[in-house]
Structures are given as structure tokens and as C-alpha cells.
Amino acid sequence: MIIDMSRELFCILFFVISVIGYIFYKKRNATIQYWIIPVFVIYLLYLLKVTLFPIFIFDQETLEKVKEGVENYLVFYQLKPFASIVNYFREGAMIQLIGNVILLSPLVVFGEIVTRGKWRITRMILLVSSVSLLIELLQLVINYSTGYPYRVADVDDLILNVTGVIITMLVLRAAKKAVSRKEESCLKIRALLYKE
């Protein structure tokens, strides 16, 4: 059996989470523009799809057939720092490297919008890094639960995710300083993001 996020499930989850988000938005009298919530929900659903799905669940007989001849090569986790990163460079898998660096950047942007940039960089890095760690732990749990490691829990993914978070934070803070010098641009961006 393969559990995957189909288009139908994606649409249902998008609708349900967006409605729940709208209810909280109205009750909390949020200061951000509402369009940010559905965009963020789409990002979260894609994040789940890219990091956790599909999940392969085989009965014992099929699992044994799948593992036949490759059992020694199945890896459930990779804990050696920089081993995968070196491998990405060696094999020219730059898309994997860049993808892991930018994977959590939208989460940082959303966090900056919601907090209005008032959180210290270290606090945001800790929060988003915790999300990265949670993803890796979920991948590990799924691997051991199913007996089939489709997604390898990798310490290098964590390193690359955190690197991307730091880069994104620095770029956002530099952009904020640059825009704040231009009052007209600053007002347009505030109107786009916040209800005044």
C-alpha cells in the first residue's frame, strides 16, 4: 500500500486548514492580511508532501521481496555530518543541496511577517530549526514503522535547513533596513502585508 497526498486530499486539507485559519484569524483580530494564511497553508502542505510522502507500507512477504538483494544497502538514517553534502557535490546533485537550503525559507518569511520582525534572529532560528529536526525525526519514525526507508533521516538535511534559515534571516533583515530608508516603498509593503 502506498499512502500519498493526492490532489483531492491536498484540496480537502487546503480547504479545511484555510477555514480553520480564517476562524482563528477573525477571532484573534489578526493584524496581517488574510491572503497570507492560504498561501502559508499551500506551503505547509507542499512541505509535508516533499518531506514525508509517499509512505510505502508493505505486508511482510512483499517487504521481504523488496529487500531481497538490497537489504545491506537500505539506509534508515545518516548521522555522519557533511557526508551527504560531499556526496551531493561529487554527484552534481545541486538541486538536492539547494532544495534543502531553501526548504524552510518560506517558514522564516511567514514568521517574520507574523511577528513583524520583532523576534531576535536566534529565536527564529531555534523555532525553524526545531521544525527541521521534527521532519527528520518523523522520517526516521516512518522508516522504522514501515520497515522501508523511502526518505532517509539525514543530519546533513538538518545542517542545510539551518544554513538556509540563517541566510534567509540575514537577507530579510538587510532588505528591511534597505526598504525602511525609502518611506514610500515601506508603506506599500506594509499595506500589502498588514491591516492598519
From TrEMBL:
The chain crosses the membrane at residues 6-25, 32-57, 93-113, 125-146, 158-175. Residues 40-173 form the VanZ-like domain. It holds the Pfam family VanZ. InterPro entries: Teicoplanin_resist-assoc, VanZ-like. The keyword Transmembrane applies. Keywords: Membrane, Transmembrane, Transmembrane helix. This is VanZ family protein. It comes from Jutongia hominis. The lineage of its organism: Bacteria, Bacillati, Bacillota, Clostridia, Lachnospirales.
